[in-house]
Amino acid sequence: MPTYKLLIAYDGAGFHGYARQPGVRTVQAELETALAPHTGPVDSVVAGRTDKGVHAAGQVVSFTCSEAVDPARLARSLNSRLGPEVAVLDVSEVDAGFSARFDAIERSYEYRVLNREVPDPFLAATSWHVDAPLDLEAMNVAAGAFVGERDFASLCRKAAERATVREVRSATWRREGDLVVYAVTASSFCHQMVRSMVAICVDVGRGVVAAAAVPAILEARDRHAARGAAPAHGLTLVAVRYA
Amino acid sequence: MPTYKLLIAYDGAGFHGYARQPGVRTVQAELETALAPHTGPVDSVVAGRTDKGVHAAGQVVSFTCSEAVDPARLARSLNSRLGPEVAVLDVSEVDAGFSARFDAIERSYEYRVLNREVPDPFLAATSWHVDAPLDLEAMNVAAGAFVGERDFASLCRKAAERATVREVRSATWRREGDLVVYAVTASSFCHQMVRSMVAICVDVGRGVVAAAAVPAILEARDRHAARGAAPAHGLTLVAVRYA
């Protein structure tokens, strides 16, 4: 069966997350509806199931269908059907058996904080507005505590029987004008893990939590030890890496 | 009477333009409602009456009120009331008699065209997607024909008895990644003038109209000689200059 890989971007604001759910608008449902005239019904697989309101600049989706399709023609057709909220950046044929989810070896997310007193209408949809001054150095010390193979139970919304050990490969904060941007790469992430990291780091940056207290939050392996989750609309899945 | 000057930014998507109109949501109405608890009812004056869907990064508004207000406190209060679509960047007290409209000596607009095959969900709200290749050099030749003091009747939506002579001080196209950005500065603009310039330049860039034909479009002094108007959502009022 021919197998295809899609690279897509979306503005998450209008969607109840990536994954199909009955009764609500999801990226997966719109994508599979747009695919159907070309491929028939497909059961697509996604690299990162983003939550309601979370964006993607480099999400990867794979699917198989019974007959071959022309990748460039499919991309053009999908873009004309999906409208500006979802864009198909690339379509390619891949080896049979390829899974966007199980073959992914690394995911990278970015979280944007607008750090100035005054809001910005043009960044409001894709950043969390924090007007208190932030100590970037302390936030980088906090983020450093996440790097390595660790049990992230304190930072994950509980999913029964799901392992919460993950390998974080890098986690850094940088300033870009009035934005403070968190870039984090891991083998994979559990549910709400990035937004929980951001909530802790911002509390460290504001001086509400000491950077030195972060390792103990992780060691508690208890969701209640954390600082909640930063708002979804600041988060973007930026890239997925394959071997 | 104390007089104040506001520097504001807004995402025009949710508004039927800047100027108050009965029955629809406008920036002016929301701004004056947010001002009222501090200033009482005001009759504000704006530098550039932007159309439905047009954005502003540096719009200027002035008003007088019977009692003095604290500018910094007013800015904070307005930002907390107006939410992320409208931001008050600065509030200052100015000389009595100052008018944001009549004292302005120059307005600058930018128009953003996303010029690549694939749409971009994150630029969709603030740029016009043109997927055909654009010849930037030809577009700059076309834009050069707008510079100087000229009658722009061909580029203005007719307003009875209103003069259509304007002085355009600069008009240039530049590339910024996948964006092609038009920057234009004039003493003032008549209605739909920038979007009409953009429609002509993009048709020149696509090779549909010759750059050499642009002076004749102006000389016709006839709206029908032009190429319509580019969509509102690509346009932003970026700055207003005072003596």
Summarize the structure.
Chain A has 243 residues and is an alpha+beta fold. Helix content of chain A is 22%, strand content 30%. Chain A folds into two domains: 3-94, Pseudouridine synthase I, catalytic domain, N-terminal subdomain (Alpha-Beta Plaits, 2-Layer Sandwich), CATH 3.30.70.580; 105-242, 2-Layer Sandwich (Alpha-Beta Plaits).
Sequence-ordered SSE layout with sheet pairings:
The structure is a homodimer of 243-residue chains.
Chain A: E1 3-10, H1 27-39, E2 45-46, E3 55-64, H2 71-82, E4 86-94, E5 104-114, E6 128-129, H3 136-144, E7 148-151, E8 165-176, E9 179-186, H4 193-205, H5 214-219, E10 235-242
Parallel strand pairs in A: 3-10, 5-6
Antiparallel strand pairs in A: 1-3, 1-4, 2-3, 5-9, 5-10, 7-8, 8-9
Helix pairs in contact in A: 1-2, 3-4
